[in-house]
Every structure is written in structure tokens, then in C-alpha cells.
Request: fold
Amino acid sequence: MYKIEKKDYGFKLTFADMIHSDEMKKWVGEVKTNVATAPSKFGVFVDMRTLKPLPSDAQQLLEDGQKLFKEKGMEKSVVILNSTVIKMQFMRLAKDTGIYQWERYVDASKESNWEQVGINWISKGIDPDK
Reply:
């Protein structure tokens, strides 16, 4: 399951449970539609606290979506997760797509104020890693 919401800072994405390539293809299509009307600079907040590890074909499609966000003006992104496996997978994907330097990861199992920490990174540039 996925959801894309427009927010003041840009976009909030929710990825949950198991997402296969057919559903990820639909997501990429929605990303294309949404970024077409996005401001020139924006942030992306990604809540994937309940996401299961993605199959390789879905990972490739996710990379396509990440590249679209970056090409259209994404300045910062934050990923909220609850799993070390998912964190490692998405750090690798971010490195592969060239967005790693703008992306931060917040472990919701260790940070009770995870949502505010993420928004502070996107909106105010307060680095959660420092």
C-alpha cells in the first residue's frame, strides 16, 4: 500500500506492508503527475514504518520515482522506519540514485518525536544525525 499527499513542505509518502512491482508502477505514475505541478524546490517525507523489504523489480521502480523527485526540485528527504533491514536497503537505493546526501533516516523505534524530527530536517534544515 502506498499514499502520496501534498503538504506545505512538499510531499508526504506512505509505504506500508508488501509492495510489488505492479503497485510500484502505479506509484511512479502518480509521482509523475504530482511533480508536474510541484514548486521548484520541495521536501519529501517518507513514512515506511510498516514496509516489508521490497522485491528487486519494485526497488528499481522506486529508484525511478526517487530520480523524478530529485529532477523536479526535491532538496531534502527524510525516511521514517522501524527496521534496520529496510534502513540498509533504502540507504543503498539512495546512494544508487544520487540522493543520499540530501536524505536522512529516522528510526521511529528509537525516536519518539520522529515526525517532528523529520519535518525539522525538511523544513528547517535541522540535521537529525547531529
